[in-house]
Write a structure and sequence with these properties.
This protein is mainly beta and about 725 residues long. It is built from 3 helices and 59 strands.
């Protein structure tokens, strides 16, 4: 190769290298220019602040994105469940947490009522291990599409003392657009009934389902579970995963997402930048954001309920609004000392309720210039009426029971007094009883229910006999004091004794027996009686009336009563706390009575008597009044029936009014026992009477026999006459 060619070749290589360098410089210049252009697309800060006092810093940018720096939450644990960004609710579309975030004791309402919030980035940075209240955390975030609760810990969630439910109520209420949910092993759906339903359309018409992603993707889930929202929550609580698990909402129909907000004040021209640059510091004063609607209205109507001065209570006012969004809104209320208002109100379709609470410091008044302000919109003036308290009264009735001197206090040495009140609230009230005698004590409090209660006084071994007329009962903390009432302490212990049984109670038959009752130191009156150890089928009939120390106890048997002797019965009279010594009840076996054939002749139209033999079983020896059923006219029982060793005689007497007849269905009742039917025959006047054999053969039998005898006799005489003539 000649030198000329080599020189040309070197020149060519140099030229190519030069062109390459030029191209590289041009490319670098172009890239630099592009970056410079993108660097110019800086998104400005329009609002900034901290999450509570000394909490993490946050900035709201003009494109609707909130950036939250790493740090801690300074939000306070109280009942103000609304978002710290609520004033910018119509402009926020995304919230980004940039690093570790200690959520403190509450996330309640943190992201609530942000209707255009579509995404929350960085929830995995949250430390919720100390959070006590998660109520309404995401409530009303109607455009939120996904939630990552992989590392949320609910182990410290508290209990609401008012309803004893976990403090997670309405946590997911109104998250209509939620499509992807990631939940970890330390999260639980507490208080499922009120936590808010996942996967329900805004009008509650479509119930959606959830499927776990499994080995698939969010776009094409391949999990084996397919649950309704409630089934998902129960499944997760019962089978928490070892690792975070992703669930995808399966929509039955296409749903339209809420329209993105457009705010001319926050958008500077058009920008197609895919990677906007967010300033880390505030270079200028933030832009002031005006209320959502300038034609909104708030109207408060008339008070419902009564607030009493000096008493804890609540009243409500109906609130109607126009052009105010559904959800919880912070409010202010001009009020008066002793009356408090909530910090927020829930508006649903233009309606809400304002509740005002009174306390012990509330005074009676009619405040006419109160006003409610919601989102900067102030209502009409409305009136709160606080009534003066009604004057309470208390009255004590008459002593029930007996208090005995020198008897140790206990269930057998107490007395009670009925107490009636007016204008005294239901519940336990501390009391004071004035002028109690030595040895008598009163309880520290009394239960009042619907104006009634009972005062119980107890005696002890030091109680002295006497009558104290000037006792008074007062309710501590009120002006209520009763008029004087009387307590009587008896000198001698009261007693009850029960005498011997009067009458017979038969097994398997209804009946009654009585016992004489004698008492000492028990006032005259009628008492409910309780008898211990009564046998089956026997009960107390009525009450026992004590008059001058005497009364009667009645026991009744029925068809389930069994024959037996019960020796250990005891009688207690109500309100006396006194029990008798043991007494005996005898239930006799079932008795029988049978009546034999008539002995003697009873003739119609003539006075006379007939007798019947009577045999019995299980009827004691004695004389008994006899009752015979179905006696014919003119026939009566004569005297009584004396039973001796199961035998006796029944006597029936006829008179001039007695008619001839045979009565077959007579029955005899002795000592509560009735015989089988027997017959009575009354013969006609002048007729042959049946033989006096005690036979109860019917009259027509004897009449026929007499006729036949007469015919035979006539025939015998005729034959004799014929024989005599022949001879």
């Amino acid at each position: 190769m000649n030198k000329s060619y080599e020189a040309q070749l070197q020149l060519t290589k140099f030229f190519k290298l030069f062109l390459a360098i030029i191209g590289l410089i041009a490319a670098i210049t172009l890239v630099s220019t592009t970056f410079a252009i993108e660097d110019d697309a800086v998104v400005e800060v329009v609002a900034y602040g901290t999450l509570g006092e000394d909490g993490a810093e946050w900035r709201l940018y003009e494109d609707g994105v909130v950036i939250v720096e790493a740090g801690v939450s300074g939000l306070i644990l109280d009942d103000t469940y609304y978002s710290p960004w609520y004033d910018y609710a119509d402009y926020i579309t995304e919230i980004k947490f940039t690093g570790d975030f200690d959520a403190g004791e509450t996330t309640a309402g943190m992201f609530s009522n942000l209707p255009y919030l579509t995404a929350i980035h960085g929830l995995e940075y949250f430390d919720t291990s100390s959070v006590v209240d998660m109520s309404q955390t995401f409530a009303g975030a109607a455009s939120l599409e996904s939630l990552d609760l992989s590392y949320w810990d609910v182990s410290s969630i508290g209990i609401d003392p008012d309803n004893e439910e976990y403090l997670t109520s309405e946590m997911f209420e109104g998250t209509y657009a939620l499509q992807v949910l990631t939940i970890g092993p330390d999260f639980r759906f507490l208080n499922i009934e009120n936590i808010g339903i996942l996967g329900v359309s805004e009008d509650d018409t479509d119930i959606d389902y959830w499927q776990n992603v499994g080995d698939g993707t969010i776009c094409e889930p391949a999990g084996i579970y397919y649950f309704t929202a409630e089934e998902l929550m129960n499944h997760h609580n019962e089978n928490p995963p070892l690792e975070p698990e992703i669930w995808v909402r399966i929509l039955p129909v296409a749903e339209e997402a809420p329209e993105e907000p457009v705010n001319e004040d926050l958008v500077s021209g058009e920008s197609n930048d895919e990677n906007p640059v967010y300033e880390e510091t505030e270079s200028a004063e933030p832009v002031t954001i005006e209320p959502t609607s300038t034609d909104a209205t708030v109207v408060v109507t008339t008070q419902a309920g009564t607030l009493i001065a000096g008493q804890v209570g609540t009243v409500t006012f109906n609130v109607t609004t126009t052009n105010i969004a559904n959800g919880y809104h912070p409010i202010t209320v001009t009020t008066i000392p002793g009356v408090t208002a909530p910090t927020q109100i829930q508006i649903t379709d233009g309606s809400g309720a304002l509740t005002l609470s009174g306390s012990a410091t509330t005074v009676a008044t009619a405040a006419t210039n109160l006003a409610l302000t919601i989102d900067g919109i102030t209502s009409n003036n409305f009136t709160l009426t606080i009534s003066a308290p009604a004057i309470p009264t208390i009255a004590v009735g008459t002593q029930a029971g007996i208090l005995t001197a020198g008897v140790i206090a206990g269930p057998t040495n107490i007395v009670t007094f009925p107490v009636t009140t007016t204008n005294v609230a239901n519940g336990l009230h501390p009391i004071t009883v004035i002028n109690l005698p030595t040895g008598v004590t009163a309880p520290a409090q009394i239960q009042i229910t619907n104006g009634s209660g009972t005062l119980t006084l107890s005696g002890s071994a030091t109680a002295l006999a006497g009558i104290t007329n000037n006792l008074t009962l007062g309710l501590t903390g009120t002006t209520a004091t009763s008029s004087a009432f009387t307590l009587t302490v008896s000198a001698t212990a009261s007693t009850i004794s029960v005498g011997s049984q009067v009458g017979t109670l038969r097994a398997a038959r209804s009946g009654t027996v009585t016992f004489p009752v004698s008492t000492t130191n028990i006032p005259n009156g009628t008492y409910a009686a309780t008898v211990a150890n009564l046998p089956t089928g026997v009960s107390v009939q009525g009450q026992v009336t004590i008059t001058n120390g005497s009364g009667t106890l009645t026991l009744a048997g029925n068809t389930t009563t069994l024959a037996r002797v019960t020796n250990n019965l005891t009688l207690t009279l109500a309100n006396t706390n006194v029990t008798s010594s043991a007494f005996t009840l005898i239930v006799a076996p079932t008795a029988t009575v049978s009546v034999g054939r008539q002995v003697g002749t009873l003739t119609a139209g003539r006075a006379g008597t007939v007798t019947f033999p009577v045999t019995t079983t299980n009827i004691p020896n004695g004389t008994f009044t006899a009752t015979v059923a179905n006696l014919p006219a003119g026939v009566t029982v004569s005297g009584q029936v004396t039973i001796n060793n199961n035998s006796g005689t029944l006597t029936l007497a006829g008179s001039t009014a007695t008619l001839a007849r045979v009565t077959n269905n007579l029955t005899l009742t002795l000592d509560g026992t009735t015989s089988a039917a027997f017959s009575l025959t009354v013969g006609g006047t002048g007729q042959s009477q049946p033989p006096q054999t005690g036979d109860n053969t019917p009259l027509h039998f004897w009449t026929g026999l007499t006729v036949l005898s007469g015919v035979a006799l006539v025939g015998y005489v005729a034959v004799a006459v014929v024989k005599q003539k022949k001879s």
